[in-house]
Amino acid sequence: MELTLWTYEGPPHVGTMRIATAMEGVHYVLHAPQGDTYADLLFTMIERRDRRPPVSYTTFQARDLGGDTAEMVKTSVREAYERFKPQVMLVGESCTAELIQDQPGSLAKSMGLPIPVVSLELPAYSKKENWGASETLYHLVRSLLLQQVPPPNTDRPDRDPAIRPKANIIGPTALGFRCRDDIQEVIKLLGEIGVDINVIAPLGAKPDDLMRIPDADFNICLYPEIALTTCKWLERSFKQPTVKTVPIGVGATRDFLAEIGEVAGIDVSAALRRSQDDTLGNWDAARISSSANPGASRLPWYSRSVDSTYLTGKRVFIFGDATHAIAAARIATEELGFTLVGIGTYSREFARQVREVAQQHGVEAVISDDYLAVEQAVAEAAPELVLGTQMERHIAKRLGIPCAVISTPIHVQDVPARYSPQMGWEGANVIFDDWVHPLMMGLEEHLIGMFKEDFEFAEGHMSHLHTAPHQTGEPAAAILSGEKATAVAVAEPLIANDDSKEIAPDPGDVVRWTEDGAAELKKIPFFVRGKVKRNTEQFARDRSITAITVDTLYEAKAAIGQ
Amino acid sequence: MALQPCTEIPTAKTSPSAPVQALPVLKERGQREVFCGLTGIVWLHRKMQDAFFLVVGSRTCAHLIQSAAGVMIFAEPRFGTAILGERDLAGLADANDELERVVKELLDRRPDIGTLFLVGSCPSEVIKLDLAKAAEKLNHRYFPKTRVLNYSGSGIETTFTQGEDACLGSMVPVLPAKETEEPALLVVGSLADVVEDQFKRLFDKLGIGPVAFFPPRRASDLPSVGKGTKLLLAQPFLSETVRMLMKRGAELMPSPYPFGIEGTTAWLKTAAEAWGVEGEKFDEAIAPSVARATLGLERYKKLLQGRKAFLFPDSQLEIPLARFLSRECGMELIEVGTPYIDRMLMDAEIDLLPPGTALSEGQDVEKQLDRCRAARPDITVCGLGLANPLEAEGLSTKWSIELVFSPLHGYDQAADLAELFVRSSERRRRLSV
After folding, report:
1. Which residues on chain B are in Cβ contact (under 8 Å) with A16?
2. Does a structural domain hold residue B287?
3. Given 1.10.150.120, 1.10.8.550, 3.20.20.70, 1.10.10.10, which CATH number is that of A512-561?
4. Where is the active site (chain A) (predicted)?
């Protein structure tokens, strides 16, 4: 047993769900107890998808355990096939189903469905989410392409120089970190150097698309945690080279272009030159009026401008999946001038690479999926900024350190509506803003710590929460507290009350809150408290009530609405 | 610990009340799109701040809870998972030793924990880990500083709010015994603090007392129970807890649940009758609240009148809510789905449903979705796994979890409750893009 306050990855079957949900025409039958359907919410809520994930669960209960749970698998497979008519079916089990050993994969394979059935063996008690996703992608691709594999020692014919090279982008999934926008950014990069996209998988691909993977000249392994196993197999089977540089950060993006240049045998020097020249923002008219503004990031100039001087030597601790942690370490040190005081990953498969980076910076890598060990490492390193996952937010809150998220696990706020890649030139812009933003907050906190009696920047309030100065005896002041305090939307009354008129507070106003009324008001959630207070006082004034009791509060609420 | 069937429907009727109308109940089995009982931790950790919930389970369990609660940032987590590894499954590691080590690690970090719940899960139940015994052993070591209790929130045994039932059930045996046989009121079920205070004031006004609430705000402030304890249920999903309280001598006062004006009045009346409160005094005491609630409800009633509602099973709140929506808001009920029906706790509500209401128990989610799409209801109450997909199909939804997380009981929340069902269609009306 392992005490886990927060887990960095879900179980492996969630990885399978990420592949199935990323694709079209694939259905996943999952042998799992009632309740494991919570995972649907990862996609419908955190990623805000507008349809249910293509997953059928057997949802067995205790009363089924005495009976034939294997029969439930068959029923689910049959019904899922009839209802959804997928082109490929994945069949597997969750951690509880693994214990009762119904062999759902073999059962499904024996049912004679007219489509490929991929049986997944994912040991839930020793492996985790990314491994599950990687394994699923590998088995899926292998099942579909095994027929096409040429005999060993067959050489790949050389590309006709008259035809533009074609690349597959392998690795983006549902619930990945910013995959949606990273792909757009990589497509732009490839367009700039004259490389065409053959297949993007799994995100947005159909099984037929996977069948076309061998047509490309090379594979771009965009998210090694998910795609490396598959890329290696494709390299062995179809002699397709793998581009391994992950283009996160300005330097890494340049290296990425250079690597493609080598692998595809094309000249990328123009694109690299552009990325070097053009880093001074968009201040002249000629550039603003040009929509074609390729190949430059603002990060280099922003990072060189004098207001970034205070970033020099800021101590940063980095944790996440290996890909994002390694990329972040390079950006932090070479592109922002921070000092790396700690780095780690929960991706054990890539521990060696992370250790190498740690060694370059003279720190010890934290290779762990134990949240408490990471917390301890952060506390010991005493950084000024933590770049981590959703879980490091908890650590940073506890230790009072500014924090930005660079990797999964994430929550809903890291699947934003706006364009927000991490990769390519624009990705570097996003990264500059996101990583520096919490530091600004941090600076404000320092000032609050230094000058405690400030009338505006009071203890416990961050200025970005717009809290108003607290003045006793002035109802209008307290009204503001909480009014604009958070981004939490408050339901306005749905029907405007025609009697409610905005009356300027009369300075001679004598509306008083009784002790019990005031105590009741404190129980109202803070983000609506201000409004309730104002409404109640207005209500009292209108009726010449001088002392506001609990009943007045609720009468006002009933009369005015929420 | 033997696995109990999950949906035992007791037939015992406690009161010879009015004959229950024989509403036909559609019983379905198939894929169930519901939460397991572990989800109860998401609100119970706030209700009882001195408690810690340690799930003994797999990474799936840990992932579930953090996916639900992890959007909030905790400087001090109040729940965690002891994740079973292959060594535990192979019996290479002694489960009790392992638990002891994990609990020690936890209590070293969080010495302020007053009550520690060891929460069973599907994996721990399937491999038959005896957590009850483990809790007992740990109690010897840590009590009185920390009390260790055990319940199961596994998906194979419990659905969503049944997690609270199981949690409260685990506390019943350690409630202190009542010293006298004088009548005392025990309100059972998690209520928002503000609602508790409102009810407390009304009981005081009616001269009903002493009143205690279960669960308490601190797990260490346990109410007493015994002969003379009269139970008023604030939540309908507490089958297990009620039966255990009855075994300790408490008496259940069956009643509709305090949702809406009618439900709240019936609920208070149940207590008032037990305390022999005169009708006139009762009416007088509730009059201002009723008047306010009527006024507040009016504006939403206009909007809900004649609209069609479809409720997917989730929390067992569906039947009381459907009663409120149909009787007080004038809505038409297409289907009222509930994970299961405990007649002893639900008859008073079922009696109030309009004749011919389509009740369903259990779920085959695909078929139920087909029925829902065919009916095109004006509002669909469902879980978050279905809400966005149905919205994308043009249906207005009210996600049901909010009904467990919001102060909705009692008079002064009647309008808020109705507003929840208006909000999504109102939103559609406002949005033009």
Report:
1. none
2. no
3. 1.10.8.550
4. 307 (proton donor)
